[in-house]
Design brief:
Elements: H1 3-9, H2 13-19, E1 30-41, E2 44-49, E3 52-57, E4 62-73, E5 76-85, E6 112-122, E7 128-139, E8 142-153, E9 155-157, E10 160-175, E11 181-182, E12 189-190, E13 194-212, E14 215-227, H3 232-237, E15 246-256, E16 261-271, E17 280-290
Antiparallel strand pairs: 1-4, 1-17, 2-3, 4-5, 5-6, 6-7, 7-8, 8-10, 9-10, 10-13, 11-12, 13-14, 14-15, 15-16, 16-17
C-alpha cells in the first residue's frame, strides 16, 4: 500500500487518538469535528504541604470543548486541534482546590486554552515523514509551548494502523507576567521567570475499526512521552512532577450513532505530565459531531 493511500485512509487517526473524535477511518482528504468531553478525576495523589503530607486530586472534574481540522495534501498531512478546558471556570469538585496542601490552594476553578498543531511532510521514496508537533497552553497562571521535531512512520497490519514518532523537544514556559504562578506548597503567587526545558519526545498512535454483526466501534490509543528532561524542568515543576520522564497514555473506544455523531469513553494514565504528578488516572466521556 502506498504511503499516500495509507494517509488518505487514516486521516482521522490523530484526532481519534488524542480526543476520541467521531470520525472513523475515512477516504476524505479533509475533516472537521466538534467534541464535548467530561473529564472525571479518578486518582488521589500524595502532595506535600506546609502542614505535612496529604492526599487530593491533582485537578478537578470539568468539561472540555474541542474543535479539530485535519487535512491531507500531496506533500503530507496537517492537523489542528483547538481546545477550551473548563471554558467558563465552572468545574465540579472545586472544594478540593481550597484545601490545605492542594496544588492550587485558594485558586478555585480556572479556564485554559490549548492548541495542537501536528505536521507530517513526506520524504520522497520513503515511508518516513518529517514530523513537527506544537502543543501550546495558556491560562491565568502561565503560557507554555512544547515543540517537537523529528520523524514519523506509518505501519498498517491488517488495518490496525500504528504510527510511531520520535524527536527532540524544546519547551518554553513563561509565568503570567501580570500575576505570576501558584507555589504548590504555600499557595502564594511567585514569579518563576522563563524556563527553557529540553528533552527527547516520543508519540505512538494506534487505531482500528471493529464490527460485530450490526455493532461497530473504533479502538484508539495514544501515547506521548518526554524523556531525559533537562534540569530546568525540576525547578519549574516543583513538588508535583519533578521527574526527567513523563507520559500521557489514552485508551479509548468510540461508537457511532450516525455518519456525523458518535459517543465514546477513554481512560487516561498521566505520569509526571501536563500538570499531573505520579500516575494519575482519569475517565473521559465524550460526544462528537463531525462535519
Amino acid at each position: 500500500m502506498s504511503k499516500k493511500h495509507m494517509k488518505e485512509k487514516t486521516i482521522s487517526l490523530l484526532a481519534l487518538s488524542i480526543i476520541s473524535s467521531s470520525v472513523f477511518a475515512s477516504s476524505s482528504n479533509e475533516f472537521q469535528a466538534l467534541t464535548l468531553r467530561y473529564d472525571k478525576q479518578l486518582t488521589e495523589i500524595g502532595l506535600n504541604s506546609d502542614n505535612g503530607f496529604t492526599k487530593g486530586l491533582a485537578k478537578y472534574d470539568r468539561i472540555i470543548i474541542d474543535y479539530m481540522h485535519l487535512a491531507n495534501y500531496d506533500w503530507g498531512s496537517n492537523s489542528i486541534i483547538i481546545q477550551w478546558d473548563d471554558p467558563f471556570a465552572m468545574g465540579s469538585g472545586n472544594s478540593f482546590l481550597n484545601k490545605k496542601g492542594s496544588p492550587s490552594k485558594g485558586v478555585g476553578a480556572y479556564a485554559s486554552f490549548r492548541a495542537f498543531l501536528d505536521t507530517n511532510i513526506n520524504i520522497e521514496n520513503s515511508d518516513f515523514s518529517l514530523w513537527s508537533y506544537n502543543y501550546f497552553i495558556s491560562n491565568e497562571f502561565m503560557v507554555e509551548s512544547n515543540n517537537y521535531f523529528g520523524l514519523s512512520y506509518e505501519i498498517n497490519i491488517n488495518d490496525f494502523i500504528i504510527t510511531p514518532k520520535i524527536g527532540y523537544n524544546i519547551t518554553i514556559n513563561q509565568n503570567n507576567p501580570f500575576q505570576g504562578a501558584i507555589n504548590p506548597i504555600t499557595g502564594q503567587y511567585v514569579d518563576y521567570g522563563t524556563k527553557v526545558i529540553r528533552s527527547g519526545a516520543a508519540v505512538i498512535t494506534a487505531n482500528k475499526n471493529f464490527k460485530f454483526k450490526n455493532f461497530e466501534f473504533n479502538f484508539n490509543a495514544f501515547y506521548e512521552s518526554q524523556f531525559g528532561r533537562s534540569s530546568e524542568y525540576n525547578s519549574y515543576a516543583a513538588n508535583l512532577n519533578d521527574s526527567s520522564y513523563g507520559h500521557l497514555l489514552r485508551l479509548g473506544v468510540q461508537i457511532p450513532l450516525s455518519k456525523s455523531f458518535s459517543y465514546g469513553i477513554t481512560l487516561q494514565n498521566i505520569h509526571n505530565f501536563g500538570g499531573y504528578g505520579n500516575n494519575a488516572n482519569t475517565l473521559e466521556l465524550n460526544a462528537s459531531c463531525s462535519f
